[in-house]
Specification:
Layout: H1 11-33, H2 41-56, H3 70-81, H4 83-96, H5 108-135, H6 147-176, H7 185-207, H8 210-260, H9 270-286, E1 291-298, H10 301-307, H11 310-327, E2 333-336, E3 341-347, H12 351-367, E4 381-387, H13 394-410, E5 416-417
Parallel strand pairs: 4-5
Antiparallel strand pairs: 1-3, 1-4, 2-3
Helix pairs in contact: 1-5, 1-6, 2-3, 2-4, 3-4, 3-7, 4-5, 5-6, 6-7, 7-8, 10-11, 11-12
């Protein structure tokens, strides 16, 4: 499981800057255009409660933390009381909502930072969308809902959503260093649906039919709870699918590794090596490039197994593979080709180049302190080297290397024959 990233030190400053700039813009807007209509303290409290409730009925999101139905309260307040009141009330509700997390054991500092960020962002969101609506000629209060006013409301909601997405993306970038997996079409759909519900709430409220308004709020409350339940289930399903996908990808990587690599040494296996040889020989001949191979065999390996143990033999194989990998060139390819036999491929190399590399490897294997694996163990390698020509095939080049490997064995082992 991936360890969660610690929040970056830059994100508290971003949250504070967002709040200060938002309050500054709200103050300037208040002084310049003021609230669209007067609002009584009782009504203000009811609107605040509506905004707070629509935030609280939200659902957790794996990236952004919380997705709410706050567009209901924001859009409804905007259409009834104008952008200044809507931004101020939404900011107050956004500041208040995270406080409950203190009771759940969340650090006061983290709760405060969440409140600062939410407050600043909601000021920008609601004020930006609200000013767009009023400057476009949208009526406040809404009055009769016409096609023209609906288009302006939709434009305001688009502006609100863009500001929200940008603000959250920058927040996640400042906090985590990335904003991947944040933007969600489903969550955006929820936000727009909540906005249209807000239009319906405003229109019903302005008709002044209290019974109808109360009935509507009851139905909408039930609908929000149902949608919240659906969203939570959907997010859980997405997490489950993501986890299962990750598991399948890991299993696929494991199968690919098993198909191409030797499980004991970690080197390429014979199956991979044969395919690689076929392709590389063909490519080298067509491109008029040098290509050389070597077969290496551990001398008297059966005696290591017989006199010590097969476990010791396995350790020797693993260590030989490590030494070959460590001291070969980055362009070379190494495979475990048989029990104690290794295949080394040297692209763009002559017999002399390959001989020099193999001689270095032979010397390293011979001088290694094998007592770390078992006392009185001596390990040496014999090499047979062969270079391709225009008529070479995989089987022919391997046969030539194998013949030279046997020659090295017959000459006393622990040597390179090319």
């Amino acid at each position: 499981m991936t360890k969660p990233q610690a929040p970056k030190k830059s994100y508290p400053y971003y949250s504070l800057a967002l709040l200060v700039s938002g309050l500054g813009v709200l103050f300037v807007a208040w002084r310049s255009i003021g609230p669209a209509i007067d609002i009584s303290p009782t009504t203000l409290l009811v609107v605040f409660g509506l905004c707070l409730f629509t935030i609280a009925v939200g659902y957790p999101h794996p990236s952004s933390g919380h997705v709410s139905f706050d567009r209901v309260g924001q859009v409804a307040t905007l259409l009834v009381f104008g952008p200044i009141i809507a931004a101020a009330v939404s900011a107050a509700a956004s500041f208040t909502y995270p406080i409950y997390r203190i009771a759940k054991g969340v650090a006061v500092k983290d709760v405060l930072l969440a409140s600062l960020h939410n407050t600043g962002l909601m000021i920008w969101v609601v004020l930006g969308g609200g000013l767009f609506y009023t400057f476009a000629g949208g009526p406040v209060p809404l009055g009769t809902l016409t096609l023209s006013s609906l288009i302006k409301v939709i434009g305001a909601m688009l502006v609100m959503q863009v500001i929200n997405e940008v603000g959250m993306s920058v927040y996640l970038l400042a906090r985590n260093g990335n904003y991947r997996n944040y933007i969600s079409l489903f969550n955006n759909g929820v936000e727009f649906t909540a906005g249209f519900i807000g239009v319906l709430v405003a229109a019903t409220y302005l008709v002044s039919q209290k019974g109808l308004f109360i009935l509507l709020m009851g139905v909408l409350t039930l609908g929000m709870f149902v949608l919240r339940r659906f969203a939570v289930m959907r997010n859980r399903l997405e997490v489950l699918v993501t986890e299962r996908t990750a598991e399948l990808e890991e299993k696929t990587r494991e199968l690919e590794l098993k198909a191409t690599h030797d499980m004991l040494t970690g080197l390429y296996n014979r199956r991979y090596a044969d395919g690689y040889l076929e392709a590389e020989i063909k490519s080298s001949i067509e491109g008029h490039k040098q290509f050389t191979v070597a077969l290496a065999d551990i001398d008297h390996f059966k005696q290591i197994n017989d006199h010590h143990s097969h476990e010791t033999g396995d350790k020797v194989l693993v260590k030989v593979a490590e030494l070959l990998s460590e001291h070969c060139r980055s362009t070379d390819t190494i495979a475990r080709y048989g029990g104690e036999e290794f295949l080394l491929c040297f692209p763009r190399s002559t017999t002399g180049d390959a001989h020099a590399v193999c001689e270095k490897l032979r010397s390293i294997i011979e001088s290694y302190n094998w007592n770390d694996i078992a006392s009185n163990v001596t390990v040496t390698l014999s090499f047979g080297v062969a270079q391709i020509d225009v008529n070479s095939k995989r089987k022919t080049i391997l046969r030539e290397a194998d013949e030279r490997l046997y020659a090295a064995k017959n000459l006393g082992r622990n040597r390179v024959v090319a």
